[in-house]
Amino acid sequence: MSEVKVDYTKKEFPPILSKVGLILTLVGLVLVVLAYSVDHTRSAFNNLILLMFLTSIGLGSLFLVALEYVMGNVWSVPFRRIVEFLGAVLLILPLVFIPIYFNLHDLFHWTHQEAVEADKILKGKAPYLNEQFFIIRAVVFFGLWILFYLFIQRNSQKQDETVDQKLTTRNIRISAFFMPIFALSLTFAAIDWMMSLEPHWFSTIFGVYYFSGTVLTALAAATFLIIYLNEKGYLLKNLVSDHYYSLGALMFAFTNFWAYIAFSQFLLIWYANMPEETFFFINRMEGNWVYVSIALIFVRFAIPYFALLSQPSKMDPKRLKFVSLWILFAHMVDLYWLIMPTFSKDSFVFGWIELAFPILAYGILILVFSIKAKNKNLVPIGDPKLIRGINFRL
Amino acid sequence: MSDKTLYSYTGLFDTPDEIIKAANQVAKDGYKKFDVHTPYPVHGMDKAMKLGSSPLGYVALVLGLGGALLALGIIYFMVVVDYPVIIGGKPYFAFPAFVPILFEVTVLLASVGTVAAMLFFLFKFPNNAHPLHDTDYLKATSCDKYGISIQAEDAKFDEAGISGYFESLGAKSITPIYLDNEEINTKHKVLEPKFIGFLVVVFIIVSGATYISLNKLMIIPPFSWMMEQEKVVPQESFSVFKNERGMQQPVQGTVARGLIPYAFKGKPEEAGKFLVNPLVPTKDILAEGKNKFEVFCSPCHGNLGEGDSRLRGHFPNPPSLHSEKVRQWTDGRIYHVITDGQNVMPGYTSQMTREERWATVLYIRALQRSQNAKESDLL
Q1: Counting C-beta atoms within 10 Å of the first and last residue's C-beta, which end of chain B has fewer, N or C?
Q2: CB < 8 Å to B47, chain A
Q3: ipTM score for this prediction
Q4: CATH T-level fold of B268-372
Q5: Does A37 contact B at CB distance below 8 Å?
Q6: C-beta separation of B172 from B10 below 8 A
Q7: Tens of pLDDT along A318-377?
Q8: A393 touching B, CB under 8 A?
Q9: Residues 6+ apart with CB under 8 A from B23
């Protein structure tokens, strides 16, 4: 364990990066506006997928940063800044939510007053599932997330100049406060925005299901960026396969965790065989939705699982980059599988509208990242744990 | 020193940084058979020692897959081939229900097998006399020192120069470790024929004594076991009676106490003619009859006696008690059906006493009257 000096010099990104982000965002926006003018119901459902996807990346990144502070992680310090920048997606979320607000009636059955009147179950759920409270909750979630994001990242970036250890202590405290709030807000967001699409259906594990995908997706996005930027020489030169291995092992673990949660949800509903629960899976196992359901097992679990099973594969940067991109795709598929059957029950639909929103998603990600990373250090050079993080070996 | 063979040379270091550097140097200098001992796992040691990847992963993979297949095979044989039972309306081969068990067996076999493989193949178990055992070197490394031990078997090992080599690494307290010839050459007394013979004799005596005391001695009174006493055991012959049956016929020409024999067995018409209801329809009697009707009759005939129970369509349909025929019957005739049975309906003598049967008849009468009320009943 030789002493390593932090020899970090800020390298500007080539302007092409933000240009690509801008072009993708603009193309995506134009396509989305077109989509809304053609079929606004279908677009609203796709918009929901977009919202959940970006929430996953933004909130999941914030969670990973907070986790590092709370647990005192050392290995992830050298590239924490990348994850922080990804958390900036949280700032965009309210904008993504606006079109959903204007299409609530297309998305959510329970927003129809007459449907609630005629339905005893919906009437019982009305104190929670009503438009006013729904909007209040959404505003509270966005407010809390953005607030915590701003606090944590401000302290972290201030430390680059002041090298003040107190800032780490302060962030640990903020992160500890954030953890229960994260758990509750993520669960209720998943219930509000996805589970209430089928207001008669309920699954107590649903929040955990979305959580597993959220952390996995944030990890995948961060892993791809870290490896890519490290290979291009934007980060420290001392990152080694041990750091990669930790990222790969976490992705592997959360792939397993997702499968565990998804199967638990399926097994309980399948075994109990209660009609008020089973229709969720019946909708997804009838017509050609069954192909999507079966594909999901492979896309989301089997392929990443076997791609990351062996020890060398968790250290191989090429493999990790492929798997992390694959997981980003898999999360889209998962959200599609969760949300779209409510829109078209009989058979799945796929067209240019379904492509427009992912283009916008990746555009926003690249744009936000390049804007955020401009004029800022990509490595938290003032962090007291940085040297230990660089020296991290398995 | 002539009775001792050199096993290895050891050197101690003070910090994890030093040990990593030293291990790196030893590996770089071409030593293969050396080991590092530290009080806790030191990160980066694998790489410093230039260790290859462990074969245990493959053991775990093979055993895990083997466990999954084994569990699947066992479950498949049990619930599909050997003893298929429909559980919860699921198919025999209900794969999702097996997954938790497959998972458990996979993990069980992989983990237990990996530990066993590690102990027996990699650590060469049983090996309870390792030369490093109980040396000051190992005591130091399990406390606060970090040590390297280079074995004499190594091709590059040179007994004259090894001490200097350790010094060049910066090691303190360099000590040789010797194999104890006495210990190597000791034959275990456990394997001597005398001892084994002794074990066999003890085994025979103990097991014989146990057998005799449990199977012979304990039968003799007053030790005789409760299990062995003379009593009626279902499905077993009973030696007290000549015909070896536990259940005996009553002695001919006698009647059990309190039993009033039924004289009209198989004679419904005569029963209807001669039997008279001994009870009067009071409130209590009707309540009793209602209770018995709802327990014994309604499962087939329905709560109102209309024959509309849930058995309808699954079974020969139970008849209505409100048909013209049944309403014309006397109390004795209905009593006969309850007592003796009719068609697929069994007799209920063992479930209901005489009085209860008559009370039920009165309740059926009340039901009939309620379903076919005359105008005069309304007054």
Answers
A1: C
A2: 393
A3: 0.79
A4: Cytochrome Bc1 Complex; Chain D, domain 2 (1.10.760)
A5: no
A6: no
A7: 999 999 999 999 999 999 999 999 998 888 889 899 999 999 999 999 999 999 888 888
A8: yes
A9: B36, B45, B48, B49, B148
